[in-house]
Amino acid sequence: MEAFRSGFHDLGYVEGNNIIIEYRSSEGKYDGLAGLTAELVHLRIDVLVTYGTPATRAAKQATTSVPIVMAISGDAIATGLISSLNRPGGNITGSTFFNPELCAKRLELIKEAVPPTIRVGVLLNPDNPITFPCLQEMERTAKSINLELVPFQVHSPNEFESAFLAWDTKHVNAMTVIEDAMLIANSKSIVELVTKRRLPSIAFKEIAEGGGLMAYGVDFAKPFYRAAYFVDKILNGAKPNDLPVEQATKFDLLINLQTAKTLGVELPPTLLARADEVIE
Asked: Distance between CA 221 and CA 173 in Å, rounded?
């Protein structure tokens, strides 16, 4: 949100002066998104900004007239939110990223980091529409590099422990997480369970920063900053369908060297050389 506000500031907006932002959060409970979206539309807002695929889908279902700016959504084409990047169609524009390919790449990276890995636990939220396109792409990649995936569905943090207990019985060697707002918000709890079991992990940056082994993904602060640009264009008369959806093109590799030492993992020098950030 700091990046979001900074984007408006740099465009000459002052919150509470020449722009008013109404904030709503479902606190990770996606069944509340429809009500929150309807509430905002009822306020006669000029633009609706969303974070994540579930929120964008709820917004699309709530209104066909209010412009919608995706601050970020996983593969908006695969999930049917837009028809194309250049001409998104309807009332949606903003930023997206190819989440399925990103999740699949993480499997290659964890295999490169820890070659003995043969069984990877996958934590996912089935309520997020991007989850299953990601899992399908991951299964294709896993097959090509001789990995077995062990998915576990969680709807809330109180189901995390059950996932890890299930993986204990299946002798999972590593784990990953498919992007989801609820899971990102509860990274600390996930890392605690990963650390307790001394499991190598790779996911989004919050996992590696909190004590996981690796991260590979998008810095979400950048598209949130960019969301202000889309809002500004719309407030000045542009139509969402005339604003091409932008896709993230830079993916950062973060390695937690402290965690690698704790796990006794000897990371290949070639992998360390490719890292955008190393936590010493």
From this structure: 31
